[in-house]
Write a structure and sequence with these properties.
Blueprint lengths: L8 H10 L1 H20 L5 E11 L1 H4 L4 H15 L2 H13 L6 H7 E6 L2 E8 L2 H49 L11 H21 L7 E7 L11 H19 L7
Antiparallel strand pairs: 1-3, 1-4, 2-3
Helix pairs in contact: 2-9, 5-7, 7-8
Amino acid sequence: MKSEDSFVLKDYFKAVIRGWKRIVIFMIIGGLCGMLISTFRSPLFETRAAIAVTIDYTRTGALSDIQEDQAMRGLGSVIDSDAVKELVVLRAHQAGYEIDRNSIAEMFTLEREDFRWFLRVRDSDPQRAADLANLWAQIAVETLDDGMEHAIIAAHLQQYLDSLEFCMQRQVDDGITENACEQYDFSYILEEVQSTAGEIRAQQQMSYGLMPALEFFLAENAPLNTAAVQGTRGVFVIAGAFLGLIMAALTPGRENL
């Protein structure tokens, strides 16, 4: 191969720079094409509901940042769970909205800010976006309430199990029983321990793993937002201009355009 036929990156960039007029024209054409494409797309409207979360530290004591984050992420996983979204699809159909899991994946976004979860919905119809965001929030709170009931029951059962195990340990160690335990014999305590442990597992499964000290409430309903999401057209214009830049750079052509 001749040296003059080899690709030299420095010379290539010099040629591209010399053809700056063509680059500008290509970028303008690309931007105009992006603007034209954006006119064929329906505007999007976004709204959001908010669920606020607090922790009852009188029940938990001091928690580390990691423990608080785990509790918050556990609650968020319930809001974003398949069970909640399946209910959203079902009730949306009952309300006359035809959506499925694929459209939910495109329209619904869950975001966290400190001790709040924001349930965002985008749609081409602002009323539909508000209705679906509020429906999502309502079902999420209902599901969280149900899970929290089971989490509290599991916590109470755990306290009962601890007391049973204490009685069992005292009897095994030295045969001495406390007043609270003396009315029960060893076989009864053992049966209660096994039964209670099984019930705790069942309640924990239905609790979605929620921390019983969590408290939450619907802090904001999703308002009707008739202002289209800004930046949608700008994204297409920038993308078109960028594609124009790439095309101009890949096809240097004549430098003295």
